[in-house]
Amino acid sequence: MPGHYLPHRPVIKSSSLTTKVRPVFDASFKQPGYSSLNECLSAGPSLSEQISPLLIRFRTNAIGVIADIKQAFLQLSVRPEDRNFLRFLWWNTEDRTKLEFFRHCRVVFGVTSSPFLLNASVRHHLDSTEYQIESLQATVKKLKRGFYVDNLTISVENQQELLEFKAQTMKIMNAASFELRFWAHTGTKHSETQNVLGLKWDTETDELYCVSLEIDMGISDNISKRKLLSIVNSIYDPIGFTSPATLLPKLLLQEAWRNKLDWDEELTLDMQLRYRRWAKHIAIIEKCQFLSGYCTEISKKLLYTYSLMLRLMDMPAVLFYDVKMKER
Fold this sequence. Notes:
It is a single chain. By secondary structure, this protein is α+β, with helices and mostly antiparallel strands. Helix 5 (225-233) runs antiparallel to helix 6. The chain has 8 helices and 14 strands. The strands form 5 sheets. It has a 4-stranded antiparallel β-sheet. Strands 9-10-11-12 form a 4-stranded antiparallel β-sheet. This is Reverse transcriptase domain-containing protein. Residues 26-180 form the Reverse transcriptase domain.
């Protein structure tokens, strides 16, 4: 009988509130001369909302709201005839010298087709609910534009709308065994900052900021074009909060291409100097904090925004002003 075994390894996350140690299955692993499981599967069409529009809608109204589906992929069953391709080995709990094999009966995180299967299932359920229950149509429409895989990210106008939305959402999603958990919204007090699609969110002050870089900046090393590209790509900022502070390495990368440097060729001495001067102050990224909402009670329909960035060529400084004007 044809089948496939998924290799796996433990991932330890001591900061996790739910699962501190979890097995991660590698569907991309392959032996020489053979294809991996992921290479044999179709990813399907992308049904996820884009992150930037999601964050814009999250910032539109006065109260931002987030939640996620508990064990989302485990709510979806795999057809019995496909389960042999999701086998894995595990030590016998009584005799550690013996191996046993198991099969996944549920959709596995890390398999190419899994995000599509989850998105399609949620979309199908919401479509069915929208046609069947007219009183829930407004909430369903908001949910359709609020999910990124298993993460819900939306905003509402006031506390009354928040209570109604939360109650209706839980009713809708529970009907398909999708339990929403870890609810957080503007004004709630948490011991730790929340994660909103890769950004950090302080719900008490309602401020967003980027996560500090967890990469070797190579200040004491000579930087190649490959290393510079890796550093540029490690700065996660989907809506451009930190653009004034992260412009320099992008300009250096552009200059490296213009000078036709090879991937592993070191930057020129002048470029190295400019990079190191910038890298010493990279901690400023985490200090760039912005209010989550950008609409006030006064300016609901029209918002005029003017931003100015000045880079002084003779000084390692960036001036950034954000001037907001009320509706006229």
